[in-house]
Amino acid sequence: MYEREAPPHSSKTPQIFEGVFNWTMTYRRDSDIVNGYGDVYKKKDFAIEDFSNVERLSDSLDSVMKTKTKMVAWFVSNCKTKSKRGEYAEELQRFIPVDIYGGCGLLKCGRRKEDELCYEKIEKEYKFYLSFENSFCKDYVTEKFYIILRGSGDYAAIAPPHSYINVEDFRIPRDLADYLYYLHRNETAYMEYFNWRKDYFAMSMVNWLHHASSFCTLCQKLHTDKTEKVYYNITEWFYGEAQCNKGVRSVRIPPYTKFIK
């Protein structure tokens, strides 16, 4: 079974396939092969000595800070979701400026290479980015989390310490807005959210290295794993009601880690 999307946005596996699948290859961390939208790596454990092509560090953080004159950005095209992220963003806008780009907002980034242009705009102009899941499901983490790093996902299990702000830590949107304003006024506290970049880097699904690694794992298992097994409850395992719940949202702190080309 191969699936990258969360249950509310994927085609449910027909019952006739119960007892057919031998392995699972999904974003879930309990899959036989984990294949999510990205991953975070410790530099010391990675076989790349020169990280100049991994991180966008040409400008010092001090110079970057001078161009960050705006507060919060959000790029979104799917307006109505089970996570009710749109409603949360609207409430947050009552207390702090939130610029919404894409199909659900009034702002645009450009006609060509929109994603690249938009993320460059975030890095240059904004202090915060809303990384809200469209669904809150076990282990599901939006691809934008990794793109900006360089939702119901267990962010603490994958993200470096102090690299994101968990919205669920705040009772109401106003409390989150107050904290973002605190970071806006306190440069020392804000800059602490960049410390993770000294020891970690992240890759998203568009990076050939990350995308290939999962299929390399699959290929290796095909040649080495001779254990026979069959999933008789694949529908309940992936699509069961217990797999999706209230979940977690996060706020990212740009600049982000650049893709490995």
Automatic annotation (TrEMBL):
<dbReference type="InterPro" id="IPR038577">
    <property type="entry name" value="GT10-like_C_sf"/>
</dbReference>
<comment type="similarity">
    <text>Belongs to the glycosyltransferase 10 family.</text>
</comment>
<dbReference type="InterPro" id="IPR055270">
    <property type="entry name" value="Glyco_tran_10_C"/>
</dbReference>
<protein>
    <recommendedName>
        <fullName>Fucosyltransferase</fullName>
        <ecNumber>2.4.1.-</ecNumber>
    </recommendedName>
</protein>
<keyword id="KW-0808">Transferase</keyword>
<dbReference type="Pfam" id="PF00852">
    <property type="entry name" value="Glyco_transf_10"/>
</dbReference>
<feature type="domain" description="Fucosyltransferase N-terminal">
    <location>
        <begin position="2"/>
        <end position="38"/>
    </location>
</feature>
<dbReference type="GO" id="GO:0032580">
    <property type="term" value="C:Golgi cisterna membrane"/>
</dbReference>
<dbReference type="GO" id="GO:0008417">
    <property type="term" value="F:fucosyltransferase activity"/>
</dbReference>
<keyword id="KW-1133">Transmembrane helix</keyword>
<keyword id="KW-0328">Glycosyltransferase</keyword>
<comment type="pathway">
    <text>Protein modification; protein glycosylation.</text>
</comment>
<keyword id="KW-0333">Golgi apparatus</keyword>
<dbReference type="InterPro" id="IPR031481">
    <property type="entry name" value="Glyco_tran_10_N"/>
</dbReference>
<keyword id="KW-0812">Transmembrane</keyword>
<dbReference type="Pfam" id="PF17039">
    <property type="entry name" value="Glyco_tran_10_N"/>
</dbReference>
<keyword id="KW-0325">Glycoprotein</keyword>
<dbReference type="InterPro" id="IPR001503">
    <property type="entry name" value="Glyco_trans_10"/>
</dbReference>
<keyword id="KW-0472">Membrane</keyword>
<keyword id="KW-0735">Signal-anchor</keyword>
<feature type="domain" description="Fucosyltransferase C-terminal">
    <location>
        <begin position="66"/>
        <end position="237"/>
    </location>
</feature>
